[in-house]
């Protein structure tokens, strides 16, 4: 497919006897956010390290569009990839613009390009008015945004973000999401590593879920949710006396006193049929509430464990 920007096949990395990543494959397309989701220690950072060429895999290979690989042309490969590391990598006592200049210089950009790109990326992350200020005076969220700006200086096709919202206030988190949405709209391809399922749900077109170094599922959100036995639970509050016999044979129903939890594949589609069946049986309903399935439920279904520690 021509839209493929990065294809990783069979990545493996062990540290001594500990296998951090085992047979990880993924495909990243233009204008797409790929969410790399997994609990602490699942192997996300190690995978990102291999994608950006900082960590050498024991096996497997990453190929960029045009057939560019690290082995064939390291400089060309690295020019196409930007890394936003998990740990903020800034000179705290140098002004924001100077931090960006240093990043640009690392990529050998000419001075004029550096000046122009610095203005562009500062605007992209919403820090244009803080160009002359030092990161030491920034909030955690502003530092994160400058960290992203650094990775954009050489205008890479692919941006790898390793937990870019760690320790960030809600306002900066939204600013980061806006920045990433704008990059996506420009056709950049993003890998977004997180153990926050809400972030993955909000941003990611495709998801690769990792656990203990292995891919346990990958696909679009719809494909992942389809793996759940029931996508949603509808909570029904009963009105008045209802005998158990009146509910007999209704599929997916669990009764707790006056409450029914009903597993439905699709609340929007299946609620009317359920209410009709209850009405036919003379069962009166006082209230309804739906609980949407989340990626947390998907992870639990796949691994039997919660996503967060
Ligand atoms: N340099 C290293 N030396 C030894 N072990 C390592 C090294 N880097 C990672 N590991 C181990 O590899 C496994 C995967 O770690 P990794 O940092 O890739 O996970 P992660 O999913 O990014 O976790 P987190 O969300 O906590 O950052 C862990 O067991 C970790 O201890």
What's the arrangement of secondary structure elements?
Blueprint: E1 4-15, E2 18-29, E3 33-37, H1 44-52, E4 59-64, E5 68-69, H2 74-79, E6 81-84, H3 96-106, H4 111-124, H5 140-152, E7 158-162, H6 170-185, E8 189-194, H7 197-203, E9 206-211, E10 214-220, H8 221-225, E11 232-239, E12 253-256, E13 259-264, H9 267-280, E14 284-292, H10 295-303
Parallel strand pairs: 3-8, 3-9, 6-7, 7-8
Antiparallel strand pairs: 1-2, 1-4, 4-5, 9-10, 11-13, 11-14, 12-13
Helix pairs in contact: 3-4, 3-5, 4-5, 5-6
This protein binds adenosine-5'-triphosphate.
Query: What would the average pLDDT be, to the nearest integer?
Result: 92
- The N- to C-terminal Cα distance equals 38 Å
- The third-level CATH topology of the largest domain is Rossmann fold
Number of helices: 10
The general outline is: elongated
CATH class type of the largest domain? Alpha Beta
Name of the CATH superfamily of the largest domain: P-loop containing nucleotide triphosphate hydrolases
What is the architecture of the largest domain at the second tier of CATH? 3-Layer(aba) Sandwich
Number of strands: 14
* Each distinct ligand: adenosine-5'-triphosphate
Major beta sheet, strand line-up: 6-7-8-3-9-10
Largest sheet: 6 strands, mixed
Which consecutive residue ranges, at least 5 long each, have pLDDT under 50? none
Radius of gyration: 24 Å
Helix content: 25-40%
SSE topology string: EEEHEEHEHHHEHEHEEHEEEHEH
